[in-house]
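Supplementary notes for students who missed Thursday's class. We covered one full example, reproduced here. Read the sequence, then the structure, then the short commentary at the end.
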Amino acid sequence: MNTFVTTIKPLVGEHYRAAFEASHPVCCICSSPKTQVIVTPMSWLHISSDPFINVICNAACGKAECDTKVRQNVQFLMTEMSNTDPSAAGAGSQDVVGEIMPCRVCKTIQNTFKCSRCRTAFYCGKEHQKLDWPLHKAGCRAIAQAGQA
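Structure (token representation):
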């Protein structure tokens, strides 16, 4: 998984701006203006007859609750895709999926990490995480509490 994500991140980074510009202008959850595109690659490289990588891009507004719902929808879609692929059944291989999300502050996708509390906000470093904390704090707390329920 780490090798796949490390390999595909530069490719996604190279095309992130194009994906942002080509995606729907509003959040796919709440219809607010988009501020980011949630990019999720999925590997089908285990299908030896016709290997491919599917990259799912969803416009999002940056609100933590919308980001979470987009991720849940993508996970559901990927599960459905995995369950309907007859060549994947019994293959003994597991699909490789990883999120590639931009930093909430500078929008870079290089070496981003999730907020350890809510797991929905991404940052390129501790400095940007601290800088964004006043904006992220309320949503982070609510999402973390909802996840514990």
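Commentary. The chain has one domain: 2-148. Residues 85-97 have pLDDT under 50 and may be disordered. If anything here is unclear, bring it to office hours.
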